[in-house]
Specification:
The complex is a heterodimer of chains A (831) and B (115). Chain A is of the alpha+beta class. Chain A has 25 helices and 30 strands. Chain A is globular. Classes of the chains: A alpha+beta (831), B mainly alpha (115).
Chain lengths: 831, 115
């Protein structure tokens, strides 16, 4: 009897021990995770660390560095040479953000399955097949040719590894404990991968497959009418009338047989299946209007200080830990501050004693798909320019937790990787919706580049000439680099590696056999659009079209709608004697230009309100009284927003939904034009067999739908329909871990307004810099400095961000000052 | 009482220095050398683990203003109320205490089998 009891207890105890020591599903290993001696409580550091001093010894340092943390947890690095400077940046970034760096690198390089298992397999495969690692390797190779960039990358990696090297398992960031894995050695390639991830986020989209489907189905006339050759150009970044001070290259002409109409017939018979099931009924994919940004600079004549002021707020997916890491880097020839990408050396958006700069995305077409003809289905050879060429195969090994390794072969043509060959595209995996099967990917992110050199030089720039030199080193993702210096210059340059294309090249799928369809080199870097000190005394960008039709090169047929840009210009034009508070007010501006231009016409279209049902009449009354600001309390803003969404759907769905191949809706300017112009409705009505009266009916039905939607989501009482409630902003944890995000945040602003706070995306950093003898800078993150959910600095800026407040950035010019104001210090010592 | 104090002190040291699961063989070994009733051994070890883990947890959590405990409570699905960290700190050690208690019992039973 006793023997049975003994064995029973032993077996249960050992089994429990084993069970509690491993991750099961999403449950962390209970034993180690909840042990106060090793588990998450070891990450729950003391709140007050006043006067805390730490010394770390590393033999790789040249002479050592001192880091002073201010009362916001921001590190101020003081070093006497560049190596130690970037070593320190790596060290302190890892100290605050190691898990984020690791996780984002894994995401970018298709290595998440190693941590989370088979559920991430398709995602990993997708990243490999998009050539993310291939692109990062090419970038690294090119960067290593430049001794400075190489030093930056290696010093940074050495710093990260010095931090990892002295970590005990009990000190691993808490997410490693939850997901039950270990940090690994940092490689310079990881920094390159994080820059590629930015390219994927900002310049990795494409819709030529959808447009091709539209062209194939509807033909040239409708396609050209609803998807015209030129973007909504009301307010280009480079003011109209600016001279182009260069002799342009000959632009490639549209190949004779490549007129759109022919392209249709050429491709419609093409054997390339685009991978959609024959009998499927497909909805359009809507491009989210959330990823974008604002920046501007005003000249000294408009400012109170007499010096330029610069502002920038990049809109990205907002996460905790924050996607940016704020830091000051003071070396021998640099005293620069701003935000960096956790995992890459240098400052991306910031300022130094003399200059300030910021970026917004340029949505130009830098990604194209080329139809590939393989020789008898043999992926080893493909046809190009009259002969067969060899592909190169790259074997991707995807390791999967608890399973082993799966191998995946990707074939590369000279255009780029054939992401999915016929029949290879996974079903029900939304990342690949827009990828045509049997096509090769030509993407600027695969080109060799040395983008870090741009930031190395910008961080040390002393004036306009330095800025021009620096940004010409930058490739991708193309950015509108705004600039201001204390010598009274302001400038903006939509900048990056832009392919030289014939008009509308890459709007539809391209022919991978035909040399005429290839990119024709690049637009010379010094011929990228740019303007210095325009008469209007300000420069601004909000992802809109960079240029008007006078620019000699083709950039794209579409850009983000110019609404935010129009509003920014409207406000900046009024400014005189402005200080940072005026620009802060503009960053928080929630005026909707769409409502300005659309709402009066819509109400007119509806006509006699007396005949309407009372909910419709009530809604219209609210809209008519609305000030067109997306304020947090506004009920009309919710109604308008829901109505506009329903309108797009009701206008375009009959044309573009429900086909066996996926299509897309036209851009917003087309929707507005249709709603405001009777002629336009008549023309389109002819295609769709619609009378004028039925347009009105659709508009009203859309209103009903929007009211229904608000009722379903927020209840019957309109008092609960406030914009803040409807939008439901949340800053979630990077891996969506419950409890680690912000919860519901009430804010004003909307993706279509300057203050572009959406439900998940928004201003991921707000910065304003007043230049002068010593610059005064202000900034705020929707989060904080630390990546540790147990640190008060994890989200201590969030509430101020939500209220629209800014922090005065502490920017000491001497080490003495930094020390005096420090809360804790870290000394990196060479033994 | 001697058994309790000995186990508690050894556990305190080993938990600081070694992985959490070493508490299982430790409980087994300690129990082997004492002649208490097996039920009593289970109870003593079970409570020793709780008395070791819970106060340390509470101390660490207070020092951190419960910032992390509160979030972790939400992470594992406990309801969102201000003192959910306390619930977490009391619940989380139970499975470990159970495993250690059973381990001790088997050590004690082995002894009575051998001698």
């Amino acid at each position: 009897m006793r023997i049975i009891a003994c064995i029973f207890c032993l077996v249960i105890s050992i089994s429990l021990g084993i069970l509690l020591n491993q991750k099961i599903g999403k449950v962390p290993p209970i034993g180690s995770f909840f042990s106060p001696f090793q588990g998450y409580l070891q990450n729950a550091g003391p709140i007050v660390k006043q006067g805390y001093q730490q010394q770390v010894i590393s033999t790789s340092l040249i002479s050592g560095a001192r880091i002073y943390y201010d009362d916001e947890g921001i590190p101020h690095v003081f070093a006497s040479n560049d190596y130690d400077l970037y070593f320190s940046q790596g060290y302190v970034t890892a100290k605050d953000r190691l898990w984020q760096m690791d996780f984002q690198t894994r995401f970018a390089s298709g290595r998440l399955s190693e941590v989370v298992g088979t559920e991430a397999y398709e995602l990993d495969r997708y990243q490999r097949r998009m050539g993310m690692v291939f692109g990062a390797e090419r970038m690294l190779e090119e960067s290593f040719r430049d001794p400075l960039s190489r030093m930056m990358l290696e010093a940074y990696a050495d710093g990260v590894n010095a931090y990892i090297g002295q970590l005990d398992p009990k000190n691993y960031p808490v997410e490693f404990k939850i997901l039950d894995y270990k940090p690994e050695k940092w490689k310079p390639l990881n920094s390159a991968l994080l820059l590629k991830l930015m390219s994927a986020t900002l310049a990795g989209g494409s819709d030529e497959l959808y447009l091709q489907h539209i062209l194939d189905h509807y033909g040239t006339e409708l396609t050209e009418s609803l998807f015209p050759a030129f973007p909504d150009n009301r307010n280009p970044i480079i003011p109209s009338g600016t001279d182009w001070p260069f002799e342009a290259l000959t632009t490639p002409s549209v190949p004779g047989v490549r007129k759109i109409a022919d392209r249709r017939s050429a491709l419609i018979d093409a054997p390339s299946s685009t991978g959609e099931a024959e009998d499927s009924w497909l909805l359009t994919s809507k491009k989210p209007e959330n990823i974008g940004s604002n920046n501007w600079a005003i000249g000294g004549k408009r400012s109170a200080t007499g010096y330029p002021i610069l502002a920038n707020d990049p809109h990205l997916k907002m996460t905790l830990p924050s996607i940016w890491y704020e830091i000051q880097l003071k070396g021998t020839d640099a005293n620069t501050m701003g935000v960096s990408i956790p995992g890459a050396p240098g400052i991306i958006i910031g300022f130094n004693e003399q200059v300030a700069w910021g970026v917004t995305n340029v949505g130009s077409d830098v990604l194209d798909w080329y139809r590939i003809e393989f020789q008898d289905a043999d992926p080893g050879k493909y046809y190009f320019g009259g002969s067969w060429r060899d592909t190169e195969s790259r074997i991707e090994e995807i390791r999967i937790r608890n399973e082993g390794t799966r191998k995946d072969t990707v074939y590369y043509t000279h255009h780029g990787p054939v992401s999915y060959r016929a029949g290879e595209k996974p079903q029900n995996f939304s990342y690949t919706n827009n990828i045509p099967e049997g096509h090769a990917l030509r993407w600027v992110a695969h080109l060799p580049s040395n983008d870090l050199a741009c930031f190395y030089q910008l961080n040390r720039a002393t004036g306009y000439e330095d800025y021009r030199r620096a940004i010409q080193q930058f490739s991708a993702p193309a950015q509108n680099f705004v600039f201001a210096d204390r010598h009274q210059n302001i400038a903006i340059t939509p900048n990056g590696w832009f392919p030289l294309k014939y008009a509308e090249q890459g709007k539809f799928l391209l022919d991978g056999q035909d040399p005429a369809d290839e990119w024709h080199g690049r637009i010379p870097a010094d011929q990228n659009p740019s303007v210095l000190n325009p008469p209007q005394q300000f420069v601004a960008s909000a992802n809109q079209s960079p240029v008007d039709k006078s620019y000699p090169y083709y950039l794209d047929w579409q850009f983000a709608p110019p609404d935010r840009a129009i509003r920014i210009d409207e406000v900046l034009k009024q400014l005189s004697k402005a200080d940072y508070r005026d620009l802060q007010r503009l960053q928080l501006d929630s005026r909707s230009i769409l409502a300005d231009s659309l709402l009066p016409g819509l109400i007119e279209l509806i006509g006699n309100l007396e005949k309407l049902t009372s909910p419709r009449r009530e809604a219209i009354r609210r809209l008519a009284e609305w000030n067109h600001h997306y304020e947090q309390e506004s009920i009309a803003a919710s109604i308008f927003d829901a109505w506009y969404d329903a309108l797009e759907q009701s206008l375009w769905s009959p044309l573009f939904d429900g086909h066996k191949a996926r299509m897309r809706y036209p851009n917003r300017d087309q929707t507005v034009r249709l709603l405001l112009s009777e002629d336009r409705r008549r023309a389109l009505g002819a295609w769709m067999d619609l009378e004028e009266e039925s347009w009105r009916e659709r508009v009203l039905q859309a209103l009903d739908q929007s009211l229904d939607r608000l009722k379903t989501q927020l209840g019957d009482a309109p008092e609960n329909w406030s914009w803040g409630n409807y939008k439901a902003t949340e800053v979630a944890h990077l891996a969506d871990m419950p409890g680690f995000g912000s919860g519901r945040l009430m804010t004003g602003g909307a993706p279509k307004t300057v203050n572009a706070v959406g439900s998940r995306n928004g201003p991921s950093w707000r910065m304003i810099v007043e230049l002068g003898e010593h610059p005064k800078a202000y900034g705020i993150l929707p989060g904080g400095a630390s990546g540790n959910p147990g640190s008060p600095y994890y989200d201590n800026q969030l509430e101020r961000w939500q209220k629209g407040e800014l922090r005065t950035l502490f920017y000491p010019d001497s080490e003495e000052l930094a020390r005096k104001n420090s809360v804790s210090t870290l000394e990196l010592i060479r033994p | 009482m001697k058994f309790f104090i000995l186990f508690f002190l050894l556990a305190l040291v080993t938990q600081w220095l070694l992985p959490w699961w070493t508490i299982l063989p430790l409980a087994f070994t300690c129990a082997f050398f004492f002649r208490h009733h097996p039920g009593r051994v289970f109870f003593l070890v079970f409570s020793a683990v709780l008395i070791l883990w819970i106060p340390v947890g509470i101390f660490l959590s207070f020092r951190n203003n419960h910032l992390l405990s509160h979030k972790v409570a939400l992470l594992i699905g406990l309801p969102d109320f201000p003192t959910n960290w306390l619930l977490l700190l009391f619940l989380a050690p139970l499975p470990v205490a159970l495993a250690a208690g059973l381990s001790a019992m088997s050590g004690r039973l082995l002894r009575s089998l051998l001698f």
